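Reminder to self: tokens first, then the designed residues, so the page reads top to bottom the way the pipeline ran.
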């Protein structure tokens, strides 16, 4: 329940900021996306500050916390030779 109340409080705060900036909800797409980027980056400020406070190298926070959260797991392409072999097998088995 505490998480829901905190989320509501954060939403109210953002609503107040939007009102002060004279942006109406729902915001235009570009403004909304920039706001979401701000939320994503803002989430990383606390872990990064903790890393600096504990005097660890900033790269540790980047590798372990910020990069995986902000960018996720990037898709990996298939090896073209495997793809060609798969297609070749499909062609010969259909004949």
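Designed residues (95 positions):
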């Amino acid at each position: 329940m505490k998480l829901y109340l905190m989320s509501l409080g954060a939403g109210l705060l953002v609503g107040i900021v939007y009102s002060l900036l004279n942006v109406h909800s729902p915001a235009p797409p570009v403004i909304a996306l920039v706001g979401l980027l701000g939320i994503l980056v803002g989430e990383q400020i606390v872990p990064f500050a903790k890393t600096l406070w504990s005097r660890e190298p900033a790269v540790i926070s980047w590798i372990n916390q910020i990069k995986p959260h902000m960018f996720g797991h990037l898709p990996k392409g298939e090896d073209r030779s495997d793809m060609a072999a798969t297609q070749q097998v499909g062609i010969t088995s259909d004949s």
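The mean pLDDT is 75.
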